[in-house]
């Protein structure tokens, strides 16, 4: 089993995305149960894991109510009471708070974890995008749950459905049976019809912060009893593009290739000897030959040019902010004086285009070389 699957969050308190975790606690503590949820966000941010946790929340057999007594009015007391019941959340007012955390030990929870719970149906819209599949879903949804309280339909990449399928789904979303809950997951929410979006409670899964990815990696490292220092985990986190799944896969690769050191992992990732700041210093002289020679040298060292362009864009962003007095102390003074605001703006647009073009380039360094010539020769 891959590490990402092995260490999927299984409870709300294990969700690494703090915003989603807090919203779940508020929404599912309410007496009003949403019948349709929309999980929208980039790949690897935990949408499917969260959907399965929702299924557990709805079908767990051992949930109990937590009563906050008058003695638990202060914040620390509240936290103590709630943490005792497995809920990492603080609550205002002395009111009944429903313990929504699944136990993960009853039969429904275990069956959902193992993917054998008959009342949780997962549909991949990328490969089942037609009206026939949705019509089949509409027929089966009328049947009562077999072993749980609710039937939960998880439709992944829902934006891939055809217009006819969306129209067929809409009626069910408008008037679902009381025993049914939909979880729609997508990486491209803008492609969904407004009629579908308007029927759902929306949760936006943003890219994870560095701290959130580190929280995820620490869980894996501790579970596998691996020795990995903070510098290594920070490198993995910064290389994951805000994706929990990508971060875990990079860690798994580091373990498999015995690369649990920063230098070794940088070599595997193609980040060795790639410095956006250094490359910008070379560009500041507008010497075409020197700039192209540096690209050739990086290619021979096996550099990853996407990482280079990412670093360039991050540095340019910091430079732009520094020009307006934000974080100037973090910027190399030589670099700060080398570019005007107008030049920084042009370079940001130039390298943003390069970043996109690199993905499909036949010669990987060619988009970068063209951009260098465009900058140095003044061909705007």
Q: Count up the domains.
A: 3
Element-by-element helix/strand order: HHEHEHEHEHEHEHEHHHHHHHHHH
> Which oligomeric form is depicted?
single chain
Give the helix tally.
18
Kindly provide the radius of gyration, computed on alpha-carbon positions and rounded to a whole number of angstroms.
25 Å
Rounded mean pLDDT score: 83
How large is the share of residues in beta strands? 5-15%
Principal-axis shape:
elongated
Straight-line distance between termini: 51 Å
Number of strands: 7
- Strand neighbour order, sheet with most strands: 4-5-6-1-7
Largest sheet report: 5 strands, parallel
| CATH class assignment of the largest domain | Alpha Beta
Q: How does CATH name the architecture of the largest domain?
A: 3-Layer(aba) Sandwich
Please provide a written account of the structure:
With 380 residues, the protein is an alpha/beta fold. It folds into three domains: 3-63 and 100-204, Rossmann fold, CATH 3.40.50.300; 210-269, Helicase, Ruva Protein, domain 3; 276-376, Up-down Bundle (Zinc Finger, Delta Prime, domain 3), CATH 1.20.272. 51% of the residues lie in helices and 9% in strands. The protein has 18 helices and seven strands. It has helices at residues 3-6, 18-29, 47-59, 75-84, 107-113, 131-140, 163-174, 194-197, 210-224, 230-238, 244-256, 262-269, 276-284, 288-300, 305-323, 333-338, 341-358, 366-376; strands spanning 36-40, 65-67, 96-98, 120-124, 151-156, 180-186, 201-204. The strands form two sheets. A five-stranded parallel beta sheet has the order 4-5-6-1-7, covered by helices on one side. A two-stranded antiparallel ribbon has the order 2-3. The N and C termini lie far apart (51 Å).
């Amino acid at each position: 089993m891959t590490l990402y699957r092995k260490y999927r969050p299984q409870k709300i308190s294990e969700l690494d995305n703090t915003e989603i975790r807090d919203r779940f606690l508020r929404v599912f503590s309410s007496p009003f149960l949403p019948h349709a949820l929309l999980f929208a966000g980039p790949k690897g941010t935990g949408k499917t894991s969260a959907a399965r946790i929702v299924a557990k929340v709805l079908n767990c057999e051992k949930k109990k109510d937590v009563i906050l007594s008058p003695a638990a009015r202060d914040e620390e007391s509240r936290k103590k009471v709630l943490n005792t019941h497995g809920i990492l959340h603080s609550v205002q007012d002395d009111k009944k708070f429903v313990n929504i955390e699944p136990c993960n030990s009853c039969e429904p929870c275990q069956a959902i974890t193992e993917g054998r719970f008959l009342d949780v149906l997962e549909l991949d819209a990328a490969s089942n995008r037609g009206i026939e599949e949705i019509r089949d879903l509409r027929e089966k949804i009328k049947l009562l749950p077999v072993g749980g309280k609710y039937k939960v339909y998880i439709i992944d990449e829902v934006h891939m459905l055809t217009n006819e399928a969306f129209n067929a789904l809409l009626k069910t979303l408008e008037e679902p049976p009381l025993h049914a809950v939909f979880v729609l997951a997508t990486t491209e929410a803008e492609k969904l019809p407004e009629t579908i979006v308007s029927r759902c409670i929306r949760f936006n899964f943003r890219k994870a912060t560095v701290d959130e990815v580190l929280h995820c990696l620490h869980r894996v490292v501790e579970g596998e009893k691996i020795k990995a220092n903070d510098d290594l985990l920070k490198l993995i986190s910064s290389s994951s593009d805000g994706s929990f799944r990508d971060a875990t896969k990079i860690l798994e690769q580091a373990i498999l290739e015995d690369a649990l050191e920063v230098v070794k992992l940088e070599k595997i990732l193609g980040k060795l000897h790639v410095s956006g700041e250094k490359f910008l210093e070379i560009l500041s002289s507008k010497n075409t030959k020197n700039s192209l020679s540096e690209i050739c040298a990086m290619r021979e060292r096996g550099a990853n040019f996407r990482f280079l362009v990412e670093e360039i864009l991050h540095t340019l962003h910091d430079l732009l902010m520094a020009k307006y007095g934000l974080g100037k102390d973090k910027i190399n003074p030589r670099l700060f004086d080398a570019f005007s605001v107008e030049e920084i703006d042009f370079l940001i647009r130039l390298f943003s285009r390069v970043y996109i073009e690199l993905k499909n380039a036949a010669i990987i360094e060619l988009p970068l070389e063209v951009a260098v010539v465009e900058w140095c020769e003044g061909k705007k």
